[in-house]
């Protein structure tokens, strides 16, 4: 990766349960990261979600701020962004309303996404793309695995072809209007909610 990333990694530790901002491939083992998520869930009284929302391809601070807020509200385990610099943007902060203080944020640059997705696959995550393809599943018929990684596309170009090949499944949102595309934050929010709804139902059935 680059020496500058390695240097930043060495300086990053999980020291504050209220605010966890980490670059990918830091020195924290995956097991420790998992325990940190569990610790956060216990302290904040939230469900121990296994949903990772990947927004590295999104470059509008308003969309990222909104996704941060939505991810935190519904208890996602982490939000992945292309750069942590977005967090300092006033538009991001206006939409996030401080959600970044309570949600683990992970920096994965777009050029690192292939490696990141492959690593998550080895950890048992299903890689889900929000995209309309010939084999897309309707959101109303898709059953989310517990360990789900949601990959959101760029505002204008969606998910690039080189990443489509690394998806396990594509899920699309049924639409009835003339306009055939939703804002990426809205699309992400709908899938985050459906994952959360299914997991809540599952937990109730197990009780």
Quick take:
This protein is α/β, with parallel strands linked by helices and 207 residues long. It contains seven helices and eight strands, in the order αβαβαβαβαβββαβα. The protein has a single domain, classed as 3-Layer(aba) Sandwich (Alpha/beta knot), CATH 3.40.1280.
Major sheet size, sense and barrel closure? 8 strands, parallel
Helix content: 25-40%
Overall 3D form: globular
By CATH's scheme, which homologous superfamily applies?
SPOUT methyltransferase, trefoil knot domain
Number of structural domains = 1
Overall CATH class:
Alpha Beta
Mean pLDDT: 83
Sequence stretches where pLDDT stays below 50 over 5 or more residues: 1-19
CATH arch. level architecture: 3-Layer(aba) Sandwich
Strand order of the largest sheet: 1-4-3-2-7-5-8-6
Per DSSP E runs of 2 or more residues, the count of β-strands stands at 8
Secondary-structure element series: HEHEHEHEHEEEHEH
The helix-and-strand class reads: alpha/beta
Q: Provide the β-strand percentage band.
A: 5-15%
Report the span from N to C terminus. 45 Å
CA-based gyration radius: 16 Å
Q: What's the number of helices?
A: 7
At the fold tier of CATH, the topology name is Alpha/beta knot
Organism: Hypocryptadius cinnamomeus
Enzyme class: transferase
GO molecular function: RNA binding; tRNA (guanine(18)-2'-O)-methyltransferase activity
Pfam family, one: SpoU_methylase
């Amino acid at each position: 990766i680059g020496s500058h990333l390695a240097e930043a990694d060495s300086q990053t530790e999980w020291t504050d349960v209220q605010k966890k901002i980490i670059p990918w491939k830091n020195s924290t083992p995956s097991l420790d990261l998992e325990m940190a998520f569990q610790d956060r869930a216990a302290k904040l009284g939230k469900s121990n979600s296994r949903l990772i929302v990947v927004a590295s391809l999104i470059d509008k601070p308003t969309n990222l701020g909104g996704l941060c807020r939505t991810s935190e509200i519904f208890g996602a385990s982490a939000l992945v962004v292309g750069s942590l610099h977005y967090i300092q943007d006033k538009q991001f902060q206006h939409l996030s309303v401080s959600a970044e203080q309570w949600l683990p944020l992970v920096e994965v640059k777009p050029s690192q996404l292939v490696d990141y997705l492959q690593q998550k696959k080895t950890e048992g995550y299903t890689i889900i793309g929000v995209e309309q393809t010939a084999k897309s599943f309707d959101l109303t018929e898709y059953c989310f695995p517990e360990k789900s990684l949601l990959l959101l596309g760029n505002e204008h170009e969606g998910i690039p072809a080189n990443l489509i090949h690394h998806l396990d499944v594509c899920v699309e949102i049924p639409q009835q209007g003339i306009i055939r595309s939703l804002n990426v934050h809205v699309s992400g929010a709908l899938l985050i909610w459906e994952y959360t709804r299914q997991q809540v139902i599952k937990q109730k059935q197990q009780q």
